[in-house]
Design goal:
This is Isoprenylcysteine carboxylmethyltransferase family protein. Keywords: Membrane, Transmembrane, Transmembrane helix. It is found in: Endomembrane system. InterPro entries: Phopholipid_MeTrfase (IPR007318). By secondary structure, this protein is mostly helical. It has a single domain (5-173), classed as Four Helix Bundle (Hemerythrin (Met), subunit A) (Up-down Bundle). The chain has 6 helices and no strands. α1 (5-35) runs antiparallel to α4 (119-147). It starts with a helix and ends in a 9-residue tail after the last helix. The model has no long low-confidence stretch (mean pLDDT 82).
Length: 182
Amino acid sequence: MKTEPSNIKLIFTITAALVWTWLYIIIALAIGQLTGSPKLTSLPILNLFPVYLYHVLGIILLITWLPIIVVGIYTLGHRGVVGMSGHLINYGLYFYVRNPMYSGIFFVVLGSGLALGSTSTVIAALIWGLISFLECEREIADLEKRFGQEYLNYKKTSPIFVPNFFLLANDLAHKRFHKPVP
């Protein structure tokens, strides 16, 4: 079976996105080590819960959001040149959330910080979250111009960062998949 160039490009894109995400985490960890930032659990505000709960939450975030990043990239990989699609991507994972890659990277970096107890990585996640929010605001204005009422309707039904997991789980359980309309 021959692999098509578009599939190779898609595999490369997914791999590159995951590598860059982990590189971001490694840089945040290195900055924390070099600056001697305190362990996350040494901050008084976080002494509300046992340390292991932060680690468990971090692992849950990683397990939940890594596949979301991959599926988000996979879905967009079929649209062509970034930002130049002639149609709105509002199916598949994008039916449930408008920016799964931005939020996925945020929660993977945050989960890594919690799992490792790294203050610098949690701060890096917060910085990424702010940058993502600002970029989304710019993208929203562009998408409203390009797609008009179609995007405004989509915006009303799909949250910007965190999907409705109950709706997603229910649809998966009932094998309902939101596919593109031809």
